[in-house]
Each structure stands twice: as C-alpha cells, then as structure tokens.
Amino acid sequence: MEKCGSCGCLIGSKRCRALERVIDSMRVPCGNAPHGCTESLTFSHKLHHENMCPHSPCFCPYPNCSYMGLHSSVNSHFAANHSASSQRFMFNCEDSVTLETDQRHVFLQEFTEDTLFVLSRRENSLGTVVTVECIGPISLERKFVYEVVAADGVVFAKLRALAETRAVWLGGEQPGNSYLLVPKDFVGADGKLNLEVTIKSDRGRRSARARK
After folding, report:
1. Where are the domains of the chain?
2. What are phi and psi of 195, to 5 degrees?
3. What are phi and psi of 207, to 5 degrees?
4. Taking the domain 58-211, which CATH number applies?
5. Which of 18, 48, 62, 115 could form a disulfide with 110, with the two C-beta atoms 3.0–4.6 Å apart?
6. What's the CA gap between 68 and 96, in Å, rounded?
7. CA atoms within 13 A on the CB side of 39
8. Interaxial angle between packed helices 43-52 and 17-25, expressed in degrees from 0 to 180 and rounded to the nearest 10
9. pLDDT tens-digit readout, 58-113
10. How far apart are CA 143 and CA 150, in angstroms?
11. Cα–Cα distance for residue pair 100/193, rounded to 1 Å
C-alpha cells in the first residue's frame, strides 16, 4: 500500500504525485486559530505544528467542568471558580498533603502564579501509586520538578521527577513514566495517606542564568 506524500495516509497502490504537490503547496490555518494562533501551514506540517502549538487549549480538570481555554486562562478559571477544592502551595517549599481513605486526587495550585497541578492516588496489588501532573499544553516550555515523600516511622519512600504536562487530565487512571509506589504499610489504619510534597519551578534558575 502506498502512502500519501503530504499526510502519510494510506492511498492504495497508486500515487498521483502531481496532485500531491498541489495539495502540499496549499496552506491552511492552524486548528488553534480560534485560540490566537496566526500560523498558516502546509498539510504536511499541520499535524506536527498543532501538537506543539503554544495556543493549544487546555481543559479544566475539575470534575464535570467543561471550561476550555489557554493555559493561563484555565489557571485563572480554576482559581476563581474551584479554589475551595484545591490546596494552595508555594514553589520550592515543602507542603504536607493528606488524602482521605477514598480520596483519589488533590488539586494543587501555586499561590502567586496559579499554576495548577494534580496529585493522584491509585491502588494496585503492591501499594499506592502516586503521581503529580501539571495542567498545560504539551508545548509548555517551563518545567517543574517535584518531590514526594511518604514515611512510616524512620523508613521512607521518595520520588524526585519531572512533572508530566497534560492538556486533558485523565483522572489519574493512566500514570505516566514517573510515579511513587507507596508500600501498603505506609497507609494509616484509618486509610489516610500522608505525603510531603515539594514542587520546584525552573523559572528562578533561568532568571539567575540570564543575569550572569
């Protein structure tokens, strides 16, 4: 089966290269034009651009909320409409986070910038899987490193990882490449899971390098 030279789709056993050249010379607006993108692209570059477009919309992670908008808009929307359901924190500072017996996630929102994260908890046969994700487009250049610590007396489990960025939060059902596996013994008799969480921003380091 042949593939189209412009879009890569299967087209059968024959190709019309003249028509492919005509199609590839055509330019179309980015699908994120309603959100502010002004790029005009060929068909062959459209999909790649849209996957990395800084104007890609994000979706509010709050259950049953249909709000959609740019990254900064979603952060502001959450702070204005769902702040009672989030725990505020400050970058580079350790915070205590407690998940109740049946609580599967905690929304974490930074004090000064409203950057939004979701800490998720999911049980498996070995214990509890904990992940931290940032709500934002895939193209988000800013990176966040998080540390999660769970302790049982003098014994502790710790993870330091880069927070994965998601425009659409999937409810924590699909943990990313990095997660902390908390042994069952670390969960209290009351079912509560106590964690110490630190989220670090790279903005301060970039600013410091820029001043040198």
Report:
1. 2-52, 58-211
2. -130, 155
3. -65, -40
4. 2.60.210.10
5. 115
6. 30
7. 19
8. 50
9. 999 999 999 999 999 999 999 999 999 999 999 999 999 999 998 999 999 999 99
10. 23
11. 7
Place of tokens 């040198």: 212
Residue 86's CB: how many other CB atoms inside 10 A? 18
Which residue type occupies 206? Answer: R
Q: What are the structure tokens assigned to 92, written together?
A: 């580079």
Distance CA 196, CA 119 (A): 12
CA 96, distance to chain mean position in Å, is: 22
Q: Residue type for 208, please?
A: A
Residue 57 DSSP code: -
* b/e map 117-149, b = 16+ CB within 10 Å: bbbbbbeeeebbbbbbbbbbbebbeeebebbbb
Rounded Cα distance between 79 and 86, Å, is: 9
Token pair of 169 as six digits:
């939060």
Q: What is the pTM of this model?
A: 0.78
